[in-house]
Structures
1.
Amino acid sequence: MIDVNLIRQDANAVRERYLKRGKDIDFTDFLKLDEQRKSLIGQVETMKAERNKVSAEIPKLKKAGQDVSATIAEMKTLGDRIAEQDTELNEVNEKIRDFLLRLPNLPDDDLLAGGKENNKPIKTFGVKPHFDFTPKDHVELAKSLGLIDYERGAKLAGNGSWIYTGMGARLEWALLNYFIDSHIAKGYTFMLPPYMLSYECGLTAGQFPKFEDDVYQIANGEGRKFMLPTAETALVNLYRDEILNESDLPKKFFGYSACFRREAGSYRAEERGMIRGHQFNKVELFQYTTADKSDEAFEEMVSMACGLVEGLGLHYQLSKLAAGDCSDSMARTYDIEIYIPSMNIYKEVSSASNARDYQARRGNMRYRKDADKKLEFMHTLNASGLATSRVFPALLEQNQNADGSVTIPEVLRKYMGGIEKLEPIKK
RNA sequence: GGAGGCGUAUCGAAGCGGUCAUAACGAGGCGGUCUUGAAAACCGUUUGGCGGCAACGCCACAGGGGUUCGAAUCCCUUCGCCUCCGCCA
């Protein structure tokens, strides 16, 4: 949620900023509703003040032995009018809230306008690997090395599901352990959140109400729940409706969870194997900061995510996303894109974003400033650190050898019993 | 799944239709007096949202709804916590 006052003060300036995202938003109706709201509040509150005053007098008059039945009758009429106006006010408030909840975040000023085509690589690590043999793609490698059972995965859970088997499971877990240990070393607190979250969590994160269909809903009605699409959705809700002290910040967390996404209708040739599945593993970095420290936090988290890929020795590029390609809740996003040789393409393994106070406003998360004791919205930031489902294929492909084996990066070996290479299984 | 109890400020807790909503009482926090310093004691202070230029007003006793001239208090409902029974891959 953005600051309503920005719209009140200069709706055109806000509109300009959204145009960078490729969204033309008309605030005319909103501004009318806002005026209507203020006028209704004025009316309702005047009536309530009257009611409060008279209601306090009634017991005194009674005590004095006076007949209050006429006054009570008057107040009943007044009460009915209050109820009517209150209902109207609630409806207006609901419309305003719905409009605001659907507004995306304002992009940072330094972002380029437009969509994906304007994303800008700002850093490259390593080079495209060169092979003296015909390289295999990750699906072939995963099968020949006995790492993934795609067929039985589909049998168990349908398209977009797979089973990590034997050494594949160990490699997957080694990646996660490597990520986890790296983050612990940086002083981040390890969190294992619930996978089933209440609707409110999605609202704060900014996924709802717009993207309700992108997640798996598992219950309806007031107690409705959904499977989390990323641990961010859980971590961003830790301090919902809470007030922290400035000295409590920054709070640095990372969480592991399986992530669940419908990914409806998104299958393409370049998304075969485990590139885009309904369930994948991800470690997510998350920070709550004060407003003035969030840029610093962002740089730290980007560099941590980059460090993980560099530690694995894999070729990647870091891209600064154009305004239109940042997810709705985010003011800025950098993507780490790992190279997948078989597709000659760079695929996202981490998305690092600064939501600024957008999520904090939605979840009412504030901190008390040391200096003047005033309340301020926190800033929230997240960065994948990392999602395994693209690292795993990139690792297999980039590290494959002529004999069909795959070299395990040094940093993972201690998690895999010291094994240096994955060898093809004999049939 | 069944039965019951509970949810009030930073914490504990009183109030159970109007004189109890910044909210009794106790503790904690902050400021001060006293003290060489600390403790103790004493005094003061200590929620947030909304509307308004302001004066000021409105709202909030887990959330939502209802009854009433008036609700923390009565009723319905959702959520959460606790106790007992049942079930438990």
2.
Amino acid sequence: MNLSDRQKLVLTLLIHEYVRTAAPVGSQAVVERYKLDMSSATIRNELAALTDMGMLRQPHTSAGRVPTEEGYRYFVSHLIHEMELPDSTTSTITHQFFQMRNDVEQWTRLAASVLSQQSKAASLVTAPHPERALFKHIELISTHGRQVLMVLVIAGGTIHQRIQLLSEPVYQEQLSAVAARLGNLFQAKDVDDIQNMANQLNGLEHDIAGWIVEEMNRSDSVVAGEVYLDGLSHIFSEPEFINSEEARRGLHILEERPLLEDFLSQTALNATIGGVQVLIGGEGTRDELRQCSLVVARYGAPGLATGMLGVLGPMRMYYGRSISIVRFISTLLSDLVAENL
Amino acid sequence: MNLSDRQKLVLTLLIHEYVRTAAPVGSQAVVERYKLDMSSATIRNELAALTDMGMLRQPHTSAGRVPTEEGYRYFVSHLIHEMELPDSTTSTITHQFFQMRNDVEQWTRLAASVLSQQSKAASLVTAPHPERALFKHIELISTHGRQVLMVLVIAGGTIHQRIQLLSEPVYQEQLSAVAARLGNLFQAKDVDDIQNMANQLNGLEHDIAGWIVEEMNRSDSVVAGEVYLDGLSHIFSEPEFINSEEARRGLHILEERPLLEDFLSQTALNATIGGVQVLIGGEGTRDELRQCSLVVARYGAPGLATGMLGVLGPMRMYYGRSISIVRFISTLLSDLVAENL
DNA sequence: TATTAGCACTCTAATGAAGAGAGTGCTAAA
DNA sequence: TTTAGCACTCTCTTCATTAGAGTGCTAATA
């Protein structure tokens, strides 16, 4: 698809104006608002051409134009110039993150909060976790009676906890001994290794190895652990959603854990770290998101731990801004992960 | 406020009908739908009386009646007969809970899910945690370099984790020794005690004791830890919210952690365990919730660990059903806590 | 050849008038 | 005390009309 320079300009301006006003944009509006040195008739011709190309459409014969999915896509991949975040913003954010250098969960939460605040859209962030879970440490604590608490640490900082009932009471000393032994045995091993070694064990050690395998498997799915959401209410301030079943369904997808995981793993997998990916109009994923766009990135240190983060808003979205903020937070988190895990 | 038996009946029926249809209810509608043995004129007189008393109001002169806040309140405190949950429902739910007897977080999540499903409204649940945090166990793990991971177990099963940088590298053996020593020292102590003892310590032990105090303090706030939300999308299927800024603001309050904590601690504090509390029309709490009602309860084992759970829906809500389900889940969780923590 | 002025045309959104319908309150009778 | 009857009020829907926004096309212009 080849556009003339002027067509590119017109498309850019029109998208900008449409994003701003949420109403179809006419030829005159473009000329006046952006003080173009041409008449509205000229713009009309260009608009007609862009419409033929499928970049724009008219809600009805005598209305202005609205960008199509394709129009946005062209804009995002060819015309967008990323928006520099003001220094004041970046430094405040950086500061906030470094103030809580001790807690992965807090980073994640903060990231979600900042993303949604800055993009004025819903945000979602997963905690960083190892691509392949490697055993790091185990702790067994007798809480009372036959009940035991297992704390499992996986390389990269993820912690799993689990309360389990044993068939007979066991003393803390004994538990500690088992934990120490298994800890040595499984050091830096992955699930498969541990699975194999578990078969050589018996009794209590066998059971506990089984729990470890279960937990480590859970940790291996693409979207392990919590997905932190924030700014959901932004969705409902968008004019296209004020009155709509659509919004409810969009929200629903974010609430249903399995749906969400499914969705994220589909999209996040083929994203490279550092690269920001833009999905426009749901783009083949789920019907509920047909009116939405998603700006996502993966972050983390490859081989150590990675996670993903993104912004979900209406298709009519300030892509420049969203992309910048997603990229910024993603590199910030990558740095934090590399330095601290 | 004294109502005749017939007035009570009329109020009950009218509320039922209004909840069902979400539209003002007229005298005829009441008579016909509930096959009353009186004429609509009689009902009209009663409606007029109830309106005078402030239980009902008319959106405009020639419309039917709508319950007022006060009307709902009277209904809930005098007229409601709790709805028995069908055995099939209770047993399925119980079964679900007992299937995952090993994980507090999962209970909480499940509780939120069941609550919102059954009440068709938004639900919120906090994990059970001790009213007064008592130290149980500490673990220190050297992750790499000067970095150390602290895992703190508080009586009742809550686990806090924290990554911290030391000023100089320390060997795992040394860390284990410190952990063991502090573990003995602080066994079953509360924050204040530990605070005092910390002052007697120095060096590494002093620092770590400091972290422990910080974490335990965090755990002492009324709404410690995550608040699990579910079914938020239900809010937007209610007709009173389809087109409304109001809904957005309601959602917002659930998203802003500080607001939410504030709100919950205000209301949850004076609830007794086992008792279900109903807040109608926000009832003095927050403006954003003026159109909403909240059905809450505390659960848990006093002295051991407690949490709270509730259902948030439009004021026009099936109170009977919500109260039943909240009560049921709350006793179920209380049992689980008592048995397992 | 590219641009622009001019204009007829189309469609929407806003406005207002008219009528149907729902529900009330009051009065008088049972 | 209850009820039938009825005038009255207010909303909601429908329909027609109109103003306005924006288009596409043609012919003139640089």
